[in-house]
Write a structure and sequence with these properties.
single chain, four-stranded antiparallel sheet, alpha/beta, elongated, disordered C terminus, six-stranded mixed sheet, 13 strands
């Protein structure tokens, strides 16, 4: 076992009778790793488990060789920025970060020096002495990030860190993540936007219903996704007849008729052939009222990958 990895070994977590995550085993190397999944899929549960905020009901976790059950050691080399607005509104950004560093045992002078450096990293020095209550959503997001990185952690855990950031700040933040990853650190972030993590991630973990759907380097995961059929919703007058015609097409893998018999969901392995087939059917006199892609968002993608509803 290498201590340079974050390891989940057969982890399960329940909230009463509600499943958080189920039988999760992962080995996360240094670099930028994105946890991607619909809301409620288990991303935040995994992050809370990794940082020791909650403990698993089964299995074990190792973060660079340290268990999250040892919080005093863990907090020294991990930084966690949640998606929740935890900064007190009465404090300035500088005071918020400085106070956190004092809890680490830093002297006042050291804490203030580190706090200022962290605010420089996230381009927030001009607002350092303004109260958090006066910050915009994006500024509060950045000050939470600054608080997470102020003690120079080796493992940075970020829950939806790009939410609310304008394009320029988003680009600067991504550049910061890449710089940290290039130093051999772990940057583990969550997102529900597949296109977003495609741009910045070294590896991706797809999660749905508390289970890992796919994982690996971004290219391999992207190819795995592309191997799955595309989904289209068709609205039409004679759904049964059109479904029968589509079933003759080799590229069509599944058809589900609507209960009202006025439409269907079609899965196809080839979008272009599907479009040509619909054209032929329409030219033959069958009325097609509309065709809409059903897998253009991440929720639909996960619904297909796990074989049905969430």
């Amino acid at each position: 076992m290498t201590t340079a990895e974050v390891i989940f070994d057969d982890i399960s977590k329940f909230y009463g009778e509600v499943l958080g995550v189920n039988r999760v085993s992962l080995r996360i190397p240094p670099g930028i790793t994105s946890l991607v999944g619909p809301n409620g899929s288990g991303k935040t549960t995994l992050m809370n488990l990794l940082t020791g905020l909650i403990l698993p009901d089964r299995g074990s976790i190792s973060v660079l060789g340290v268990s999250p059950r040892d919080p005093e050691t863990m907090m020294r080399f991990t930084g966690y920025a949640t998606q929740y607005d935890a900064a007190p509104r009465w404090a300035t950004g500088f005071e918020f970060i400085t106070t956190g560093l004092l809890l680490f045992g830093c002297s006042r002078a050291e804490a203030e020096e580190k706090a200022w450096k962290a605010l420089e990293w996230v381009s927030m020095t001009e607002a350092a002495h303004r109260k958090v209550a006066a910050y915009s959503k994006g500024m509060r997001q950045r000050v939470r990030l600054a608080q997470a990185i102020a003690h120079n952690p080796q493992v940075l855990v970020l829950d939806e860190p790009l939410n609310g950031l304008d394009p320029l700040v988003r680009a600067e933040t991504i550049a910061l993540f890449r710089a940290w990853a290039a130093e051999g650190r772990h940057v583990i972030l969550s997102s529900h936007v597949l296109q977003e993590v495609d741009v910045i991630s070294d590896q991706v973990i797809l999660i749905a219903n508390g289970m890992i759907v796919a994982e690996g380097e971004i290219r391999g995961v992207r190819e795995e996704i592309h191997d799955h059929p595309s989904q289209f919703v068709i609205r039409c007058r004679d759904a049964s007849r059109i479904a029968a015609l589509l079933f003759n097409e080799d590229h069509v893998t599944e058809i589900k008729l609507n209960d009202d018999r006025q439409g269907m969901l079609v899965l196809t392995k080839d979008r272009e052939q599907f479009a040509r087939a619909l054209s032929r059917i329409a030219l033959a006199g069958h009325e097609i009222d509309g065709v809409v892609p059903a897998d253009e968002n991440v929720d639909a993608l996960y619904e297909y990958l796990i074989g049905g509803g969430r």
